[in-house]
Every structure is written in structure tokens, then in C-alpha cells.
Amino acid sequence: MPEPDAATAARLDTFADLLLRWNSRINLVAERDAAAIRTRHIADSLQLVPLLPPGEGPVGDLGSGGGFPGLVLAIATGRPFHLVESDRRKAAFLTEAAARLGLDRVRVHPTRIEAVTLPPLAALTARALAPLADLLPHADRLLAPGGVAIFPKGRSAEDELTAARTHWHVQVERFASRTDPHATIFRLSEIRRDGPPGD
Predict the structure, then answer these.
(1) Strand partners, 49
(2) By the 8 A CB rule, do 44 and 152 touch?
(3) Taking a C-beta distance cutoff of 8 angstroms, is the pair 46, 178 a contact?
């Protein structure tokens, strides 16, 4: 994807600085310097931008933590985002970051994923949160008809997909990660359960 424009790059720098300040208190990410955060987390999140569906439909991010990928994508796209984070301290960071960056289309939901109520989403993201089989029920519940789930996955990506397909039908697109040679990004659509819930 193209490099962010100057205004977006400046916002991302502000975000990285704020993250580092909070990180000393609540351990949002393992990295402790801005360069590592930019390469390990921000660039990793930005590569999802071209995978989002076009338009202004809202996007949800589950387990947003330090803002990856949801807050970074909100900065890069300007579209409505719903960040779901059950840890109250991390949710407080996300709320402050969104306010500091003027992201008035970002909503932070400090609650468990199972309990959250969102508008029908055009897309759903989650990074390093849970196995695919655990994410698909949330995608099924929260996505609008025609919506897509975008889930970066590591070395176990294909094993997770095989396990999930025992109970779920999904249309799968695969994209190689630009930041991790061992990672795959799944873009999933037509998500539906292949049997009764809980089977």
C-alpha cells in the first residue's frame, strides 16, 4: 500500500508517542521504543487498509488492546470504528488516544465481546486475539450481510482454518503478510455455521 500522507503520518507519530507514555504504566505492547512500535505494530496494521471493503460502513475491532489494528486503521481511513476492549485500563487508553487524535468517529466499548452490541459491520478485525474457530461466531453475529472478517494469523493459520471448517462455512482469501514472512492474512466472507450451534 502507498505510504501514509503527511497528516496521517503525523497522527501515527502522535499515537506512537502516546502509546509509549501509557506503556510504562499498563504494558500495552512488549516493545519499548517508537521505532519497534512503528515496524512491529503500526506497519503490520496499515497493511490491512487495502483489504477493507470500500465505502463508509462501520468497522469493528475485537480485543483492540493498544490500538492494533483498529485505532491505526481508524487513523488511516477516517471511517467509523468500534473498538471492543474488556480491559478497562486499555479501554481508557483507547478513549484518550481517540480524543487526543480527534477521531470523533471512533467508539470504544469497554466490555466483553460476547456482550457488545454494535451496528451491522462492513468489516471486522482482530489481531492475536483467539483461534479462528473462536472468532467466527463473533463475525457471524456482528457482520452485516456481505461483510468481511479480516484476521491476521501466524504460523498456525492453515491449521486454525482446517479446525474452523469442521463447523463453519467460509469463503477464504489469503494475503501474504508484508511484515512477517510466516504470517497470513485471511479475508473471510460468506460466514455461516455448518451445523446447529454448539455441535
Answers:
(1) none
(2) yes
(3) no
Q: What are the tens digits of pLDDT across the range 44-56? A: 999 999 999 999 9
Q: How far apart are CA 174 and CA 171, in angstroms?
A: 10
- Name 84's bridge partners: 62, 109
> How many of the other CB atoms lie within 10 Å of CB of 12?
22
Q: Find the CATH number of the domain harbouring 165.
A: 3.40.50.150
Number of domains forming the structure of the chain: 1
Domain-embedded: residue 1: no
pTM for the whole structure: 0.93
Structural domain includes residue 199: no
Contact between residue 62 and residue 126 where contact means Cβ atoms under 8 Å apart: yes
Quickly tell me which residue has 460468506 as its cell.
190
Rounded to whole angstroms, the Cα distance separating 157 from 62 reads 18
Structural domain includes residue 198:
no
Distances (CA, A) of 170 to 74, 106, 127, 159, 197: 26, 28, 19, 15, 16
- pLDDT tens, residue by residue, 161-196: 999 999 999 999 999 999 999 999 999 999 999 865
Q: Is 143 inside a domain boundary?
A: yes
